[in-house]
Amino acid sequence: MRALVAAAVGLAAALALVLALTAVGSPPGETSPKPLLTTVPGPKK
Fold first, then answer.
1. Distance of CA 31 to CAs 2, 21, 36, 37, Å?
2. Which residue ranges are recorded for the region named Disordered (predicted)?
3. Cα–Cα distance for residue pair 36/39, rounded to 1 Å
């Protein structure tokens, strides 16, 4: 029974955090037009 209560409390806290972040909104700014490198560049030929 304690595990069920702990799970419910954790789920409620996570939901409250998500709702709080949603209410705050995203920070102002813009994204970079340059793509990020996802692989290590190899030697230039």
1. 45, 20, 11, 15
2. 25-45
3. 9
Environment class of 3 (CB within 10 Å of its CB; exposed 0-12, middle 13-18, buried 19+): exposed
Q: Is the pTM of the predicted complex or chain greater than 0.70? A: no
Distance of CA 43 to the CA centre of its chain: 35
Which pLDDT tens digit goes with each residue over 1-45?
Answer: 999 999 999 999 999 999 998 988 877 878 777 777 777 766 766
d(CA 41, CA 43): 7
